[in-house]
Amino acid sequence: MAKITYIDSDGDTQVLTVQPGQSVMQAAVAEGLHGIIGDCSGNMACATCHVYVDEAWADRVGSKSETESLMLEEVFDPRPNSRLSCQIEVSEELDGLVVRLPERQV
Amino acid sequence: MNIQAESTGNDPVYWDPYRPDLAQNPYPVFRRLREEAPLYYNEQYDFYALSRFGDIEAHFGDAEIFSSARSDILEFIKEDIDIPDGMFIWEDPPLHTVYRTVVSRIFTPRRMNELEGQIRDYCVRCLEPLEGTDRFDFIADLGAKLPGGVIGMLLGIPDEDRDLVYQRVSGNLRTEEGKPMEVNKASYQGEGYEDYLDWRAENPSDDLMTMLLQVEFEDVTGTRRKLTRGEVLIFVNVLAGAGNETTSRLIGWIGKVLGDHPEQRRQIAQNPSLVPAAIEELLRFEPPGPSVARYVRRDVEIHGKTVPAGSAMLFLLASANRDDARFPDGDSFDIHREGPPHITFGRGIHSCLGSALARVEGRVALEEIVKRFPDWTVDMENAKLSSSSSTRGWDTLPASIP
């Protein structure tokens, strides 16, 4: 299991214990977390599971595909550490990962 | 079976998408379905239905089993109609993926929100002439105009023809009261847009029709090519249809639900920053597309029973949105909810392409309405609910303005 910390734009923090193999988006949606939508269930078609990966973890969450990079141009307030959370697969190595939620998804 | 029989506590629960009395307020029956028949089978029209949030969340996005290749409308699935290539909402991967990818990058949150200024101008043009009057019809005065105007603006359909487009789309989805929809090929092959398209091919602009004519993509055979004229026509028809009817329903529900909840309406009028949350709650509370159908490709076991291959499955999104297990006190309307998102735009590869656009239009419409009419009373005597098995909303919703 891995603990993932989600911090929303108001600074409210929620820590989820996540089964490896789930995505950061799936874990949030399963828990009913406010602030991540994920309509397309991980198909990179809706751009509504945008997160900012905490700097300390930037190198450990894997790289972006071409499609993900294109969709990340379509989110609100994209930054260098922006990711679609459906594309980050949770593993034991990501235990402790911190992601920040944008002010809005849509 | 006696069609008129009322469901009572003792009878087995009954629901179908056609009976007008059930369409008026389906929520008590949806609650019974969730509690008594989470996997419901309707013998009369031969379909299954799922109504709990958890079941819909688990299965709706599973395109391996629940196919869109025979459409997402119960009547069409039953007819086993021919579906032309390019009708991407009624396709499975890999065909669907190829076409959806062409349009996914256009209808994104950023691009749709960039249109906000233009959408607002159009909305204001609809509402300004009504200032100072004592009556306002949420459909005739706004719902029938704004979504068609916006999608027409995107596609590049001339202003003067947009009412015609709206009428054709609503006509296609209409059913005779209490009866299933008739299958009509013209409704999905793009008839009526040929002239615009041919003109646009000669006169390229910065609109969506031009983009569809020029875009290059890799088709299922791996060939890099442009869309054919037939494919573009189908795309245009899908986008024009989807962008009209459902958003018009959303505007109607703004009128009805906020008419029924004056206290929350006043809060919104006083504090427009509540508008985005209010739109999300409206989408949860009264989804314009309450149920979506899929064709069951192979046997699947749900709640201990086998749903056989070849069945039709209805996913009752409107019921999932009221499921107390996901949305505490789901039948109450509360714009201050801070829970998980609704499932109105679906899940998975077929989730609504236009959701970002619908949200912008909903927000702009609500802001501009409460700015001018902070108070209204719906005239239910003269309101009329539409008769359609695939969307639910108002054809006419007049309101008096104090």
Q: Runs of chain B with pLDDT <50, length 5+?
A: 1-7
Query: What is the count of DSSP helices of chain A, taking H or I runs of 4+ residues?
Result: 2
Spatial strand order of the main sheet of chain B: 1-2-10-7-3
Number of strands of chain A: 5
Envelope shape of chain A: globular
Please give the share of residues in helix of chain A: 10-25%
Shape of chain B: globular
* Overall mean confidence score, pLDDT of chain B: 90
Task: Give the radius of gyration of chain B.
Answer: 21 Å
Please tally the helical runs of chain B, counting DSSP H or I stretches of 4 or more residues.
Answer: 18
Name the poorly predicted regions of chain A: none
What does this protein look like?
Helices cover 14% and strands 21% of the residues of chain A. Chain A is of the alpha+beta class and 106 residues long. Chain A has a five-stranded mixed beta sheet. The mean pLDDT of chain A is 95. By secondary structure, chain B is of the alpha+beta class. Chain B contains 18 helices and 14 strands. Chain B has helices at residues 20-24, 27-36, 53-59, 74-79, 95-104, 109-114, 116-127, 138-143, 146-155, 162-173, 186-189, 194-202, 208-214, 229-260, 262-270, 275-285, 317-320, 355-372; strands at 39-42, 47-50, 66-67, 135-137, 216-218, 224-226, 291-296, 300-302, 305-307, 312-316, 377-378, 384-385, 394-396, 398-400. A five-stranded mixed beta sheet of chain B has the order 1-2-10-7-3. In chain B, strands 4-14-11 form a three-stranded antiparallel beta sheet. The longest helix of chain B is centred in the middle third of the chain and has 32 residues, at 229-260. The radius of gyration of chain B is 21 Å and the shape is globular. The A-B interface holds A 29, 32-34, 37, 39-41, 43-48, 70-71, 73-76, 104-106 and B 61, 100, 104-105, 108-111, 113, 276, 326, 338-341, 345-349, 351-353, 355-356, 359.
